[in-house]
Amino acid sequence: MNDITIGQVLAVIAALAALITGGVKIKDAVKKWLTSMLSEKFAEQKKETDEIKSTMAELKTQLNAVDLENCKNYLVTFLSAIERGEEKDEIEHQRFYEEYSHYIDHGGNSYIKEKYSKLHNKGLI
User: Fold this and answer.
1) Which stretches in the chain have pLDDT values below 50?
2) How many Å apart are CA 95 and CA 112, to the nearest integer?
3) pLDDT (0 to 100) of residue 1
4) Which of 9, 69, 78, 123 is most open to solvent, judged by the fewest CB atoms within 10 Å of its CB?
5) Predicted local confidence at residue 40, as pLDDT
6) Rg of the chain, C-alpha, whole Å
7) How far is the C-alpha of 115 from the C-alpha of 121, rounded, in Å?
8) What is the separation of C-alpha 118 from the centre of its chain, rounded to a whole number of angstroms?
9) Where are the domains of the chain?
10) How many CA atoms lie within 13 A of 50 on its CB side?
11) Can you give the three-state secondary structure of the chain, one letter per residue?
């Protein structure tokens, strides 16, 4: 132990510092490489996810339009049948009111509302 000099201690400390610094540099380089590689993959995934979201939004819009059109068809058929004097039972009337409420809640056209008001005022509905 008596043969260890200050120079040797400093050399060991310098070697440890160099080793630690080298490890940090390697870690940073690997981290940068992984981040770059993963960023490209995540960008591709985000693009695919955005396309899926866009397609889903379009499908939802189309589905809502089809729903409203089917609802309108049912209402027109029902109201026309009432106007022609056809008798409807309680369940058919209940279903009509469900569809009519759904139609109104989703921004249905005014001519259905006007036809409903006309038949309602006549006491047919």
Assistant:
1) none
2) 16
3) 53
4) 123
5) 82
6) 38
7) 10
8) 41
9) 6-121
10) 6
11) CCCCCHHHHHHHHHHHHHHHHHHHHHHHHHHHHHHHHHHHHHHHHHHHHHHHHHHHHHHHHHHHHHHHHHHHHHHHHHHHHHHCCCCCCHHHHHHHHHHHHHHHHCCCCHHHHHHHHHHHHCCCC
Residue 7 has a pLDDT of 83
- 107 conformational bin, left if phi > 0, alpha if psi -120 to 50, beta if neither: left
Exposure string of 13-36, with b = 16+ CB inside 10 Å and e = fewer, is: eeeeeeeeeeeeeeeeeeeeeeee
First vs last Cα of the chain: how many Å apart?
Answer: 109
- What is the total residue count of the chain? 125
Whole-number Å distance between alpha carbons of 80 and 112 = 11
Q: What is the reported pTM?
A: 0.61
Tokens (6 digits) for 120: 């309602």
